[in-house]
Design goal:
870 residues, mainly beta, Maltoporin, Chain A, five-stranded mixed β-sheet, 41 strands, ion transport, cell outer membrane
Amino acid sequence: MKSTVLNGAFAPRKGLSRLGLLAGAAGIALTPGAALAQDADATADAEPDTGAPVIIVTATKRAQSLQETPISVSVTTGEVLEQAQIRDVLDLQTVTPSLRVSQLQTSSASTFIIRGFGNGDNNFGIEPSVGVFIDGVFRSRSAAALSDLPNVERIEVLNGPQSTLFGKNASAGVISVVTREPQFEFGGAVEASYGNFNAIVVKADVTGPISDSIAFSLDGSYNTRDGYANIVNLDTEQNNRDRWSARGQLLFEPSDSLKIRAIADYSRIDEICCQVSTLVAGPTAGAIFALGGALDTDFFSYNAFLNQVPINEVENYGGSVQIDWNSGPISVTSITSYRELENLFISDIDYTSLDVANETRDQAVSTFTQEIRITSDFDGPLNFLLGGFYFDESIEQTSQIENGTQIRDFFEILAGANPVDVITGAPTLFNGLEASFGFPQESIFATPLLTAEQFSMDNKSWSIFGTVDFEPVDGLVLTGGFNYTDDKKDFALAQQSFDPLAQVNFVDVFIAGATGGTVTTAAQFAALPAANQAALIGAATDPTVNPLLGLAAFQFQPPFLTIPNAVEDGRTRDDKFTYLLRAAYQVSPSINVYGSYSTGFKASSVNLSRDSRPANTDFLAGPGGSTIAAPASNILNAGLALPNLVSGSRFAGPEEAEVYEIGFKGQWDGLSVNVALFDQSIQGFQSFAFTGTGFALRNAGKQSVKGFELDSTITPTDGLVFTFAMTYLDPLFDDFPGSVLGDLTGVTPAGIPEIAIATSATYTHEFGASGNRLITRVDYNHESNSDINNGLPTFNAALGNTNIFRREVNLVNASMTLALDNGIEVGLWGRNLFNDQYILTVFDGVAQAGTVSGYPSAPRTYGGVVRFKF
């Protein structure tokens, strides 16, 4: 058995013909997921006993065949990416059933979910549970992993915690993107595609030798498309594509034992995103219409009404150097990287044409990583891998909410004012409040900014990890692995709340007024007789006695307690030892089985948002958010309490994963079947939810999922390949009493389809001995009907969680490519051919109680492609 690996191991410098490899790969099984997948730039020879191709992956940080790799791993090849028109990681989920990618409010915000576990990336303080690595370099935020994927060799999706193989953030799984390294034979490709919505994609790459020991490669892509949604009142398209990327590589092989690969890349996104539609227009819609605003309740009309065109700008760039030294029995790999990410977005957060409020967020992330691994390749029964990983990242974020020109009028009507009075400028409730509290007239909701925020975080961590393989008898491999991680975060958060109404607590105002101004502090209140305290609280919290209470709903952004402070040090310190135990046995040349127990870890996450609040162990507000009637606490005792300060979450503690898994991998002539059964749980799962005006970060006590993954490939005749991949998940909140929806203990977590299927049929027709081929592919992606979430904190809570929105996915994609032996390829492609429509996700309307907004799925896209490989 012979194989060649072009990434992470050594390959001959000469004699690899690109055309020969591509032609040889034509008959290889092109799987949608964890079934067989051809390494497009690696040679594939038949195993003597099975006649099946050898598929080389580096999922375990060693070069192994997919058949020998004793973990659940899905592999998608560069050839499948081309045929299925998979542009970025967002599209990858259509061919990998264990993976789900959820698009959020901007081009740069997405959530990667494996086996039902994942965290929202709409907050840069939250570490992802699914780690994304591109050429061995950790991309800490999804915005740094969403550029188009040029020149990809394969994408490996590793299911379950991978702490013993990766040094950072792998409590739920890993997405590992492996690109082609430079070759010592001149070659390349150029591709142009045109589709509906004026979609134009141009990609090119070239590689070749500079000398006998130095090779280079250059690749780039340009992706533009009109928007498939329309901002009606601004006559502007939305959900467009406007992105490009470029990358250069150098490969040095000064000797047979030393290889150095240097990569530099840059990508940019400048798009108008993302389409938000209205599922339910709540009671506030009347006020919007009364002031001349508009919204569209036809969810899949792709029509939006906004007062500002959204801005999404992302710059992502950096470089890495990988050094591989091979002495024979010992190999050493070092990967050093530095990356910068700049992310800016400006959006209309009320998603109506009424000028209510806009948000600006400007984020910058700088990341340095260093990994080093030592791997053995002894002839004896014992082998090992030992590695170290260092991570140093800094995050800076400034953001603000701008008051729109109509926000005051909008809230006046919601407070009960006559729309005619508001429109004509007659004195209203807010004018009366300004007079009563001594505020300047026309100051409530009339300041230029509602809030401004400044957040920063420095994260340093290091880990030591490794595995030991022991083969006591031929075919039986016992593996032990470990990871020790030490993680430190230092963060600072400050906010300025400019609205004067938010600076007043109505319970405290009543108490002060009822006592003639003699009780204005917690100490003075505590000195009163208990009966007097109870009477004051009873009256102050009775809306029939204290009419101001109804206005508390308009205090969206109260004063913010800056951190660090005398009570909160703005630090998290975590460390954890995790481990792996596994037994793998080769029953026959065609059958491998394995069983494993592993643990995983992810460090604390920080709520870098205006909704970041002290823990209830540091502060508890009194009734109605009162400070005067608040019980004693560290923050109150230190004199730090602010009006309307309430407890919440500054950060969420670590996640600790545990997985039991058994697997079967069978490969015969014309058939492969891979099955994994698992029982996976995460203690302290970091749940992140939007509440309508902010974000809540909570630790679930325990969330678990049981299920299985099945992947199969059938080749009934030469040129015809069927694949079928399926994931079944049975999730549960074992313990989650503190969610924003109340006690979810014993409830099935929503947003996790019970059944996900990815299946395909590929037929390659060869024209005699000419080398010409016609490749036809059809694939189908299904997610069973399931709840989108467990409810919405505002909308569903008011209905007793009786109206839960659901989704089902049924996507059919197809392509046909004529590949000529002279390197020219001409093809047609289509995605979502039957225009399946479903809800991506939903959320409470911003400052619009009873309104539900959401993201609609993308419509059908299709086009043609011309490609030349040389």
